[in-house]
Amino acid sequence: MDYKIGFIGAGKMATAIIKGIIDSGFCKSENIFVSDVSEAALEKMEKDLKISPLATNNEVVKAADIVFCAVKPFVLKDVLNGVKGDFNDKQLLVSIAAGVSIKTIEEFTGKMPVIRVMPNTPAFVKAGMSAVCRGTFATEKHSDLICKIFNSLGIAVKEDEKNIDVITAVSGSGPAYFYYFINEFAKAGVKYGLKKETALVLAAQTALGSAKMALETGVSLEQLIINVTTPGGCTEVGNNILAECKADEIIDKVVKGTMEKAAALGK
Q: Which is it for the CA torsion 53, 29, 41, 117, positive or negative?
């Protein structure tokens, strides 16, 4: 099927998704329609991705088989209220708004199938992690379809919406925390003699390589740690310091606090 896909919102995440859709061949650029309050954002998207900007959200909904709501959470209800009369049950609505539940969205969409997605910013470099949650009227086929789109941006998994808050903490907000660790390793490298550019490459590439080993080798993380750690060697010293500082408890607190904030946004 040649899908027509509409985006309400032309921000960075919408841009990343649209680029992934086009690059994967899932949909041609001329079959993608976008609206946004920012004319500059629309002009840039039209120039860079050759998509079709439309004047109103209503026009986007009327033109599309799949409608992405890529707006800030605090304006999503107003957006849905403004277009609810244009929806039909044969369309599919996809929301990437953090903190807005499927139940809330379905108050505006009726029996229209709804999918909620929690993506993350590494989607910009096609290394994203996205969780796909289906609503009351969405089917497995709908989930498969949206997973196909988000797999073009990295990895997509199907999940139950009840886990969306912890997903937000681990993968939605997670990049910021991994950036923090990369930055601190790089800063320590500079402190002890490395050039800034060298330290950053060492830290970032080591994080990337470690992640690939975790995902691609099938070896447990515990065993991967053992594989790097020579008894009585350098790595063991660092492992012991992490344990003494109770780094595991700190990370648990970070995830718990982020998860609680995500849950509060949905109320």
A: positive
Q: What is the DSSP letter of 122?
A: G
Residues 112, 164 contacting (CB under 8 angstroms): no
Domain 172-265 has CATH 1.10.3730.10: yes
Interatomic CA distance for residues 76 and 70, integer angstroms: 9
User: Tokens in use for 21?
Assistant: 């859709």
Annotated domain spans of the chain? 5-164, 172-265
- What are the backbone dihedrals phi and psi of residue 68, each rounded to the nearest 5 degrees, phi first? -95, 125
Residues facing residue 115 across a β-bridge: 94, 134
Q: How confident is the model at residue 267 (pLDDT cuts 50, 70, 90)?
A: confident
Confidence grade of residue 127 (pLDDT, cut at 50, 70, 90): very high
CA distance 215 to 225: 14
pLDDT tens for 23-35 read 988 888 999 999 9
For residues 151 and 167, give the distance between their C-alpha atoms in angstroms, rounded to a whole number. 17
pTM equals 0.91
Per-residue pLDDT tens over the stretch 221-230 = 999 999 999 9
Q: Which residues of the chain form beta strands (DSSP E)?
A: 5-8, 32-35, 52-53, 66-69, 92-95, 114-118, 128-134, 154-158
**Class level of CATH domain 5-164:** alpha beta
- Separation of alpha carbons 71 and 182, rounded Å: 30
At residue 1 the predicted structure's pLDDT band, cuts being 50, 70 and 90, is low
